[in-house]
User: Fold this.
Amino acid sequence: MKRGADLICLSHLRWGFVFQRPNHLMTRCARERRVFFFEEPVYGADQSHLAVSQVAPNLYTAVPHLPQEMAAKPQAQQRAMLAELCMTYGISSPLLWYYTPMALAFAEDLPCALTIYDCMDELSAFHGAPPELCDYEARLLKRAELVFTGGQSLYEAKLNRHGNVHAMPSSVDAEHFYKARMAVIEPEDQAPIAYPRLGFFGVIDERMDLELIDRIAREHPEWQLVFLGPVVKIEPGRLPRRPNIHYLGQKSYADLPAYIAGWHVALMPFALNEATRFISPTKTLEYMAAGRPVVSTAIRDVVRPYGEQGLVRIADHESFADAIEDALSESVGTGRVRMDECLTQTSWDKTWTQMSALIAEALGAPISKVA
Assistant:
């Protein structure tokens, strides 16, 4: 089979961070073509250099290392390193896949066969977002031939801004998380924690409802709240601290099922704010594949469809504890048949197959765009 054109993925997330949408999609893309995952700079180097590593077959990470004094204006060096990458690896007219519109500042002039924008979050709503991000996104939407969104809400927000936008909600590797339904060895750092356990995995940042977490732990000292994941963009001192709250840090994707196997209920205690307005949490389906009842705040892409279908309990501050009580009272395995019916409808393989077909279509014919 002939290999497709190379793809350069321009990402604001690091490959070695939480294993999520970019990792799942680019791993599958690498089955068809070489993929170069170009990350944001790391500062503090004595001399500028580009560190390229092969992390999987056909899949490479490229990380610019720059001196600290370049942090204010790194674009010229990023542009030079992108050109260096193309020259070293014989990359010609690649597909450019953007996760961050800010990458236009150094990649806009690179000749490419196709520009793709995978809008997985409304980045402008996040704490510390660059003020020029919205302008860069408008430019990227004009330039891109193909736009994907990470959820239905984002799709509706971008629909009138581009003529070839497609909702591609984040999916699930169900087989991986099914392991949580089996007898597994308890991870050492979780084993001493008493029961019942309520768990969350993912990035702990401004999207978390810290007041709700503290309230649940305070009002129910008999419940143990377990959090897996890095703390980002908020001071660790802001996190609620109680004897029954346990922050176990970031875990590898491979280890997640072993942790979830020891939970009784999976939580999504997200705040309802600008940063969560358009999120479509990948963990919703992952929790279901693990066979755990799920309690969530009213995140739009969780309410619709999972809350409406009775697959996830939706609750607010006043009803969250009651929803957990209800979930704890479930017999083991209750609801799994309906969860599994939902899971059969999607997978990362299916999502990538749909995306790949749209890429092939876009490469074959010009696409009309809406300004």
